[in-house]
Write a structure and sequence with these properties.
about 350 residues, 2 domains, 14 helices
């Protein structure tokens, strides 16, 4: 048998006479390589080491059986396709896949029928089902590319369109009610103003700090996409920032002075809404209110998306269409009123 020779790979026998292999390149830290040379596990780790990225040891990787869902998911986590996703997307998809392999990890990935995927998605709520389908579709693309199976069971699956609406969009009266309960100078008022005058998701709002204010603009990358974004600093936001004491790298911090997580901030802000007797309102609803305001000011869907960072126009077009409908309705009544007056 021809012995595989790989550059920078060294092998030795440990005290138990078990072969150990590691990657050692001059000027770089030594990296242990799992598996046997030529195996998928070993070659994946070797390619990562060549690229200067140490292999990540996944929980349960040493107990996986080749060909199972569990083994395929472990391999997917190390793939370029998964590692190229934005951190927030990785976290969401990892959570879904961990739940999937908790129930089905011992199943043969090559034998999962399309009907099984359909039944799995059918047990989810509409928006959750769409996230699951996106996650499983990305996973199955890896499975097919690695020849674990010849077909993609997620192809051709279409889900019913999720009902539009979701989080409640704040009204002007509700914004005023919150502002009355939480005056300028409080963290709650700062949070509302950041959400309302940046139109950003909460995961991005909690990351904003003084270092992101440059020349009258807020400059920061979106956590979900990694794309840079420049947002004009609204005078009202500038006024609230100047009036709110702070000495941290992020404007919004916990009681102990630590940065919020997106989930932690959402829970904290909901409590502030409860204090203002607005238990039906949420942080995400303020992002929708910001888009509504922009639409009412005459902004196009493209202009709104340039601020909010939405990747598609489908969501923001809902606001412009609603404003157009309201304007057309008022115009129609005005025309009818003029005809009545003339008559």
């Amino acid at each position: 048998m021809t012995r595989i020779r790989l550059e920078y790979v060294h092998e030795y026998l440990d005290r138990h006479r078990k072969p150990r292999r590691y990657f050692r390149r001059p000027g770089f830290k030594r990296i242990a390589l799992p598996g046997v040379p030529g195996s998928e596990e070993f070659m994946t780790a070797y390619q990562l080491a060549l690229a200067g990225q140490p292999p990540r040891v996944e929980i349960g990787a040493g107990r996986t059986k080749p060909g199972t869902v569990n083994a395929a998911i472990v391999g997917y986590y190390s793939s370029l396709g998964f590692r190229s996703l934005a951190p927030g997307t990785q976290k969401m998809r990892r959570a879904i896949l961990e739940r999937f392999r908790e129930k089905h990890g011992d199943k043969r990935v090559a034998l999962l029928p399309r009907e099984f995927i359909v039944r799995t998605l059918g047990k989810k709520k509409p928006f959750a089902a769409r996230n699951w389908l996106k996650t499983l579709r990305g996973f199955m693309e890896f499975v097919v590319a690695e020849n674990f199976r010849v077909d993609d069971p997620t192809q051709g699956i279409k889900l019913p369109r999720a009902r539009a609406g979701g989080f409640h969009t704040w009204t002007e009266a509700e914004i005023a009610q919150f502002e009355e309960r939480h005056p300028i100078g409080t963290r709650a008022r700062l949070a509302l103003t950041l959400l309302l005058y940046t139109a950003q998701a909460r995961v991005d709002v909690v990351a904003i700090g003084p270092q992101h204010i440059r020349g009258g603009e807020i400059v920061l990358p979106r956590q979900k996409t990694g794309r840079g974004r420049q947002i004009p600093l609204h005078p009202e936001l500038r006024k609230v920032l100047d009036a709110t004491p702070g000495k941290h790298l992020t404007y919004l911090v916990t009681e102990t002075g630590k940065p919020f997580t997106a989930a932690g901030f959402g829970n904290w802000f909901r409590d502030r809404c409860d204090e203002a007797s607005l238990s039906h309102c949420s942080a995400h609803g303020l992002r929708k209110a910001a888009c509504r305001r922009l639409a009412e000011a005459g902004c196009t869907a493209h202009q709104i998306a340039a601020i909010s960072g939405h990747l598609t126009l489908r969501e923001v077009e809902r606001y412009t269409k609603a404003v157009d409908q309201a304007q057309l309705a008022r115009q129609a009544f005005a025309i009818e009123q003029r005809r009545t007056d003339v008559g």
